[in-house]
Amino acid sequence: MLLPVYSSCITGWASVPAILVMSAAVAFGQNKVVINADLGKDTISRHIYGHFSEHLGRCIYGGYYVGEGNARIPNTRGIRNDVVNALKKLKIPNLRWPGGCFADTYHWKDGIGPKAKRPSMVNSWWGGVTEDNSFGTHEFLDLCEQLGTEPYITGNVGSGTVKEFAQWVQYTNFEGVSPMSALRKENGREKPWKVHFWGVGNEAWGCGGNMTAEHYANVYRTFATFIPASWGSGSLWRIASGAASGDYHWTEVLMRDIPHGLLEGVALHHYSVDWNHKSSATKFTEAEYFDTMLRALHMEELVQQHSAIMDRHDPQKKVALVVDEWGGWYDVEPGTNPGFLYQQNTMRDAMIAGVTLNIFNNHCDRVRMANLAQTVNVLQAVVLTDEERMLVTPTYHVMEMYAVHHDALLLPLSLKSAMFTGGGKSLPAVSASASRDKDGVMNISLVNIDTGKPQDVVVEIRGASCSSVTGRVLVSEKVQDHNTFDDPDHVKPAEFKGAKLDGSTLRVQLPACSVVVLTLR
Ligand code: AHR
User: In this predicted model, what pLDDT tens digit does every residue of 269-291 receive, in sequence order?
Assistant: First the structure.
């Protein structure tokens, strides 16, 4: 039957049991994806596509904020227009601030009121630089409004007080008469912003206070008690500072010891890094690339294991797993301040982003929020700036291509992949996730991390009938390729012509080291 080319996929058409389709299809080749288009039940929260901006290096100052009086760099109330315009295209759903480690040193009242009267502070975690507090609560929330994104504020637990934290929530969220809403109005903001997401400290096991899990659980209970979930914004989210990578004890204790009525999310931080050998961001070897991908793909096991612990304590999946720091971490660019964590961004980073976001999509029943570290000029940035100049990175392009999955219905899939081998170890070369948006359009994101071999992938679509496929690809000659201020479009997406749809079978020729997003109607 011929269907009109631009009609959306018709679901529920082929009800062949998945297992039969799988066994018949495996014979077609090494890479096989079976998409169960009629079995979707979970939504991929757009908040999985969140970002993180800390007072670190040139992220806030110089990255976003250049000051109201800056005549050289076009800005709106001090916030760079070029950066805002670029980020708007990503449809960033939430932005985490002010840290990171910085958050547990930050006293928010130092960053409000007339700028000339704001005290300065020393950023003790990042470079020991003095900051003048000209970018504070109002400026951050102005940035969020310019971006059309939801703020995610991390409160100070390590060196702050319960009173200070509760007053911050009252300042930003409370509509009625109160000392903090009066102060907010005095500072020029009549209506509350209604900040929905609140982090209760950051890395409490380390820079947030070197606490044990048991101690932090008690501290959390106290703080959360005074940040009522219903205060000022309907249903506010309190997110507990989470585990470092495979610290399962941390998640176990939090889920066991914190009453779930006080807890909307538990965080997890995982960087794709070898702390003993970070490697150059651009001049890395094949072995270093392989190691990075091994660590990026480890996210699958981390999400599964932390989720399994959460499932035992919270079978209804009420509490979200919030991966509020993830990404690649390399040596800083030569000649830059080691405390500023400024690194270039290559096709390696595009691979990290592609596989990680596929993992989050596929586990969206529990992973309902995540934040790439960090947005501008720090770690796996999507935007880099150099005075007046700005560029977007390969990671930016992946985020933009994957935006089709925001709030779409996850279509569960099974995947059989060829292996990518290096140094006697093997990793699956192909990664995938699929969703259907509110208009019935199906999107499939595929990644081939193998730098040497293209992969032919057979995608069997069961439970829906589609009549057309279009696609976009992010690919470059070398995995080290990146954008520079002199060549800002060296790596950018292009139209993809390597997919052919034949009935319910899609044949895809995935180029080596590529990210492809296919749209089926
Ligand atoms: O993202 C940089 C730092 O990494 C953050 O401040 C901290 O939370 C983590 O250790």
Answer: 999 999 999 999 999 999 999 99
pLDDT at 14 over 60: no
The yes-or-no answer on residue 145 being catalytic is no
Q: How far is the CA of 371 from the centre of ligand 1 (A)?
A: 12
pLDDT higher than threshold 70 for residue 38 = yes
- Compute the distance from residue 206 Cα to the ligand 1 centre, in Å: 10
Average pLDDT over residues 379-384: 98
- Name the catalytic one among 203, 264, 400, 460: 203
User: Angle, nearest 10°, between helix axes 248-257 and 286-313?
Assistant: 20
Atom of ligand 1 nearest to the CA of 206: 10
Model confidence band, residue 243 (pLDDT cutoffs 50, 70, 90): very high
Ligand 1, pocket-test mutation among 53, 97, 102, 207, most atoms within 8 A of CB: 207
For 20, counting Cβ atoms within 10 Å of its Cβ (0-12 exposed, 13-18 middle, 19+ buried), the class is exposed
pLDDT tens profile 291-328:
999 999 999 999 999 999 999 999 999 999 999 999 99
Cα-to-chain-centroid distance, residue 478? 25
Integer angstrom CA distances of residue 30 from 23, 55, 205, 290, 471: 13, 46, 43, 21, 22
324 Cα: distance to centroid of ligand 1 (angstroms):
10
Q: How far is the CA of 100 from the centre of ligand 1 (A)?
A: 5
Q: What is the mean pLDDT of residues 167-173?
A: 96
400 included as an active-site residue: no
What contacts 396, CB < 8 A, 6 or more positions away? 86, 90, 382, 383
> Whose alpha carbon is nearest atom 2 of ligand 1?
100
Among protein residues, the one whose CA lies closest to atom 9 of ligand 1: 100
